[in-house]
Write a structure and sequence with these properties.
Blueprint lengths: L3 E4 L5 H10 L1 E4 L8 H7 L4 E4 L6 H4 L7 E4 L9 H6 L3 E3 L6 H16 L2 H9 L20 E5 L3 H14 L2 E5 L5 H6 L3 E2 L2 H7 L2 E4 L13 H6 L5 E4 L8 H9 L5 E4 L19 E3 L8 H19 L11 H10 L1
Parallel strand pairs: 1-2, 1-3, 3-4, 4-5, 6-7, 6-9, 7-8, 9-10, 10-11, 11-12
This protein binds nicotinamide-adenine-dinucleotide and (2R)-2,3-dihydroxypropanoic acid (DGY).
Nicotinamide-adenine-dinucleotide binds next to α7.
Pfam family, one: 2-Hacid_dh
GO molecular function: glyoxylate reductase (NADPH) activity; hydroxypyruvate reductase [NAD(P)H] activity; NAD binding
Family: Belongs to the D-isomer specific 2-hydroxyacid dehydrogenase family. GhrB subfamily.
Amino acid sequence: MKPEVILYKPIPGDLVQRLETHFEIRHHLLAREMPPEFYKDLSRSEGIIGSKLKVDSHLLDQAPNLKIVVNTSVGYDNFDVEELTKRGIMATNTPDVLTDTVADTIFGLLLATARRIPEMHHYVRSGQWNENIGEELYGVDVHHKVLGIIGMGRIGTAVAERAHHGFKMEILYHNRSNSPYAEESLQAQNVSLEKLLQESDFVLVMAPLSDETYKLIGEKEFQLMKKSAIFINGSRGEVVDEKALIYALKSNEILAAGLDVYEKEPIPKESPLLKVKNVVTLPHIGSATSETRYQMFRLGVDNLIKGLNGEIPPTLINPEVLTKKREESN
Ligand SMILES: NC(=O)c1ccc[n+]([C@@H]2O[C@H](COP(=O)([O-])OP(=O)(O)OC[C@H]3O[C@@H](n4cnc5c(N)ncnc54)[C@H](O)[C@@H]3O)[C@@H](O)[C@H]2O)c1
Ligand SMILES: O=C(O)[C@H](O)CO
């Protein structure tokens, strides 16, 4: 009998076939409330693959046979890693394969917001371009400005590379640890959050969502930013207090915002954020290219197969699980 696994995200057919050679797949789709059949399958499953499913002690109590949870995303704020580790369950994500794609999206969003590209596109398409544009439609420069990056990890660094080499920007960053590479190769400066907010022309949030970063950017932080600042969020919506962001935009505490992520996704149609003029909104498409999504799914599938075949999954988040198992078997 092949082990049972749950696949709760549509993935390319060839990857489903690869999974089928190893496992009995139980197909489900992610929903706000998973149906009883999901929990029935979960009770027998040794693995789960997909992204965004909240994996906490409530879910794990109903998954006595689970050995591995696989995210097909780099962010894993949907996992209670401590609880998974305590229960000896492996957790994996998909770092690196999406870094450059996400950095491209973030830089595109930054340019689109500064140069008001979606608004100008609408202006032309709606037949408003009848004479030379006036200064009320001007954007602001990106090149040679100061970019402040909160969370200088893989993606933050890839954005900084584009900014430094391509746009001659000065880079400030705020991170849990120093980045010698960014300091030596990109002349980036590690500064306090306060200094970054006060001195940056563009403030980019690229730190993961955690207890520590939940609503990290709120009323006080927007007040510290320059009135001409452009705020970009590419990490997770909950890192920002959305109400405070709306207030900062409406009261001209900052100039504009470019967002790929929101407190609630999909963002509700009636969200006041969608009525604020100086905001560019994307539907969480950081890594959404055919090539990169394929690589993320492929890596997820590799993690699942290796993890359940007794090998080390390539991108294991909690290797302590394996150390503990080794110690127990000695
Ligand atoms: N918009 C999208 O589609 C998209 C795509 C990929 C990733 N993401 C988000 O981006 C995040 C980062 O991805 P990554 O691959 O660069 O991860 P990473 O782990 O390489 O980088 C995150 C960095 O943030 C730092 N950090 C953590 N807590 C911090 C804090 N309190 N203050 C300052 N810095 C802090 C870490 O030290 C690390 O250097 C993911 O966790 C995910 O939430 C979004
Ligand atoms: O974390 C990630 O990989 C992206 O947000 C896609 O979900």
